[in-house]
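The record is kept unedited without comment:

——
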Amino acid sequence: MGLSYGYDIYLRPRNVARVLARLAELAPPARSVPPLEITLPGSDRLVLPFTSHFKSDPVDCSTSNTCELDLSLMFDADDALREYAQTGGPGLEADGRIEIGYIYATIRFESLMHPGYTSVECWAATSGMSRLFARSANIRKVFTDLTADSGGVCCLFDTGDGAPEQVCWLNGEPAQETVSGPLFPDWRALVATWPDPEK
């Protein structure tokens, strides 16, 4: 079984459309797939440059607890991304960015950690991409910026193997803590720092 590393963003449900719009802005400028129409809980509708289960059929999440997306995103090159490109990954674009995909995104409208918050869990598709997620400062910056820009309260780097999650962003500030560390001995201690999702 390969590595499956990812970034998990936690935000208020009212901000889901905002985070998806920001993700769409990170998509490659030229895509060969038809646009994907999504209906969110509350009936907000978005058209996104992604697929769901590798299809472009309309997705109605208005009565669903989850939504699955397949993402390709552009990242500014750093040393880790350049090395990835040189070892069989995608090439460097003229603007200095590199396309990484597929990234599998699961949106849980009631997150596992707190049902009042939504999670957007973005997972690397391969072990090589997982290692890239761990090494690239620019990939981490994209996900923490995405958390900040969409009003998220927390961003975690999750290795998916039972190791302690790394807290990258918390309540408006960059962070470098771990869950099960001295500051956050468990999930409840971390979630207790989040504001009321209704406010």
User: Anything to note?
Assistant: The mean pLDDT is 93. The beta strands are 6-11, 36-39, 45-48, 59-60, 66-76, 97-108, 118-124, 154-158, 166-170, 173-178.
